[in-house]
Fold these 2 entries.
Entry 1:
Amino acid sequence: MKGNLPSLSLLLALAGRAGSSQDANRPGAPRPEDPAEVARRAGTDREAKEKLLRTFAEQGILLDAERGRIEIEGRMNHPHMPVEYFLTGKRGATHECLFVTEASPSLLTAAVFLLGLERGKNVEYREKNPPPTEEEMRSGVSPYETIPPSGNGLYVYVEWSEGEEVRQYRAEDLIQSDRTGRSLPRQSWVFLGSRFVRPARGDPEVFAAEVEGNLVAVSYFALGNQILTYPHPDAASQNAFTPNAALLPDRGSPVRIIFSRERLERPFSSGRRNG
């Protein structure tokens, strides 16, 4: 039924085309719909799904639900600080991210929900009981226990062309741990799905990842505004990661980023655009 279809204005708003963040924060502006609800409706209404898939295609988000994959385009960034984000938009923390994309965070989140994932749990910090002694705390022992993120996740891959060659890597291979001097341990990245926030008292709620532009985090962030986060315990320490420059392409090089429910064998790209 028509009443169950996402409106065009909703889809455009989710795609970040309904206006600037300042427009979205004006008093009286409607709260964007949760990407989880957009995906749920598309999962039960054929017309709604077809309309959403067309919007994905227009925004460069390629969904292969049957094989459990999402592909987006991006570009190699040149961070001048330690890496805290794997992927951001142009308005995100580009000074500390590896790749930048123009894909809408809201639509990307809806695509992940269409793969059947549910939001996981972000990092937690709990007071230790019993607490450390004063001597232990002076030596650097934290009074808090860090509980890593947990829940549904996706494996993340990157590929790009160099002449006639196609380079394909796991996301973890492209980031180096300062603690170990090696690339990061491979594992799935926990789906947090971002959240809704009020920029200031009296403002309408906005989708945090859309406004902040930070999509995939390498370090822990307590607010959980990102879509995906790396769950390894080393991520608790910011300023712990640097680009694995020996493997990465030149700054500005186009790349394809693949998110998959299952580990992939090469080639990573699905070649399918929708559905």
Entry 2:
Amino acid sequence: MGADPGGGEAETLRADEEAPADGQLESLRAHKQKLEATLRGSAPFAPGTSKPAFWKRTYVVDWKLQLSYAGLYVATLALLVAGVALSNVIFLSLVRNVEAARKSGSTATYWWQADDLGYYVVLNVVILIFVGIGMAVWAIVQSHKIAGPVLRFRRALKQLLRRDYDFQIVLRKGDHLVDMAEDVNSLTSGLKAKDLVVAHAAIRLHELASSTPDREKAVELREISDQLSTVVLPRA
């Protein structure tokens, strides 16, 4: 044990007092090595995102979203079938009216009598066009419930890449991926808190560099402060 400037002996730390700091430093070094390894090589799959054989895959992973899209396909198919059935009912009604008129001895002619098959085809095509337009509108309205959130996520990720955390994702009523929006908001809060710690450390190191009489140490502290600043300051 060495003597302190006041003439007394310097008090040394016990082993149990030094252990937490040493353990934390070792954990930090191990984490640094892990991060460096992920930069050099390919990162592993995230949990639950591997590619197993098709018979081992879990196909229902978000039942609310998947049932919603299953309902969309069923409704689209039902609308198509209803359109075809409607065109056939209309044509059958016209044919029956013609037959009834002929049996009653009427000599009146109708616009569809000239070419029954041709008008039948035209009638089906017209109805299917209207059904197709309705199906397209319905699909756009329903897909907007997921396309809208995806657009917001894309914009949010661009802001995160710029280190701009001044936002919060708010979805509309009825939108899908609400839980993902909450996760992104939590991620933003975590990154903001992390950058606050790093920014505080960078400022503190710069202050120490300005106050230390050791010129070499001051230069080293400023370099570390600048390195920390580059990972905190927003990108252009």
